[in-house]
Amino acid sequence: MNIHEYQAKELLKSYGVKIPAQIVAETPEKAVEAAQQLAELTNTGVYVIKAQIHAGGRGKGGGVKIAKNMEEVYQLSDNIIGMQLVTPQTGPEGKKVNKVIVCEDSYYPGEGELSEIYLSVLLDRAKGCDVIMASTEGGMDIEEVAEATPEKIIKEWVDPKVGLQPFQSRKIAFELGLSGKAFKNMVKFINQIYAAYRGIDASQVEINPVLKASDDEIIAVDAKINLDDNALYRHKDFPALRDETEEDPLEVEASKSGLNYVKLDGNVGCMVNGAGLAMATMDMIKLSGGEPANFLDVGGGANAQTVEAGFRIILQDPNVKAILINIFGGIVRCDRVASGVVEAYKNIGEINVPIIVRLQGTNAEEGAKIIEESGLSVTSAIILKDAAERVKEALA
Asked: To which pathway does this protein belong (predicted)?
């Protein structure tokens, strides 16, 4: 589950991580009120206005601005709130900005030099370990750094059974070129970030940039956190952090029906039971000359209700020119799925795209018979090759 920057930073703050003072605002008027509150905490007179969407690269798209007085706070927040912000991670359609955060300026002058650092923690599935990644090239896209100067990326693997060891935090801080107070603060900062990563069951914590301020304080200027959906049951307050306006409406609707759905850009809708079979089905669609319009896993307990919900979601995509249902009857019986398809078809009413149903496994022949005798415009198939041919014919 993705969350907003301001939510991520508040979670990190609960683990002792130093963050800039911040207040969320949904209107320009609220943004001015937020800046006035921050003025009582800081003497810089400078405020950072940051768009809140589930995507990185906001600064490049005009979603991060600096305001030096209340008039600029109002004008800049008015420009950002409601804009369709396009970044490298949103695609050309962009995302609508519904709120901003007004932050204090952490780049205050002082005797020491300012520097920006990249830091993240995530799971290295190949090694079965957590990995801490850091770089002196903070503020830049880490992908660009990895491609152009991979030697500037520091990696430290952490065995989750043992946890982060003190020497590892010190090693990272040393390789970042820090010394004195900044070195000590960075060691503490890394320990806090890793504790947060484990404590909130995150799948990723990324801070870009981490700021070494002029007084050698280490500050999380930005933060991106992905929470592990499978661990949400351990954090009863986390579902409240979900912002459905940031998600695809069809994906939100699917999740409410217990379906695993991801919208894609193709022309063949697919409904499958099992993630592995879904991936194989999408490959088969491409081999038949089509492009998958979605990933939709109805799970092992597919029934008439889940099949109908899947139909309704797929049919809301105007790009869909055919629908392929590929079911392996292991836990679920194929005849039960076939009955669900027929019932769903009748409940939905007129469906103007070809439907191919491939049933294999328990009671597959009985299921195919139900489809064929239903009188509906549904084509059945038993083997994968037949289903591919039916898809190809439907798209011709």
From this structure: Carbohydrate metabolism; tricarboxylic acid cycle; succinate from succinyl-CoA (ligase route): step 1/1
Beta strand 202-212 pairing with 224-227: antiparallel
For the chain, domains (ranges, CATH) are 1-19+109-246 (3.30.470.20), 21-105 (3.30.1490.20), 248-395 (3.40.50.261)
Q: How far apart are CA 267 and CA 290, in angstroms?
A: 7
Backbone angles phi, psi at 295, to 5 degrees: -110, 120
**Residue 5 designated active-site:** no
Q: Annotation-wise, does 59 bind a ligand?
A: yes
Q: Has 273 been labeled as part of a binding site? A: yes
H helices of 81-179, in order, are: 142-148, 166-175
Q: Is 151 a catalytic residue?
A: no
User: In whole angstroms, what is the distance from residue 22 CA to residue 5 CA?
Assistant: 11
201 CB burial (10 A radius; 0-12, 13-18, 19+): middle
Cis peptide before 209 (omega within 30 of 0): yes
Rounded to a whole number of angstroms, the CA Rg of the chain reads 26
Q: Please check if 50 is assigned to a binding site.
A: yes
Q: Would you say how long the chain is, in residues?
A: 396
Query: Distance between CA 140 and CA 326 in Å, rounded?
Result: 43
Total-model pTM: 0.80
Query: What gap in Å lies between CA 101 and CA 31, rounded to an integer?
Result: 8
Beta carbons of 160 and 138 less than 8 angstroms apart = no
Amino acid at 378: V
**Which of 47, 74, 118, 194 does the annotation list as catalytic?**
118
Residue 33 half-sphere exposure, CB side, CA atoms within 13 Å? 7
Look up residue 189 and give its two tokens: 């900062």
Catalytic residue among 137, 156, 206, 308: 206
139 marked among binding-site residues: no
Q: Does 124 count as an annotated binding residue? A: no
The token duo for 155 is 């990696």
CA 37-59-25 angle, to 5 degrees, is 30
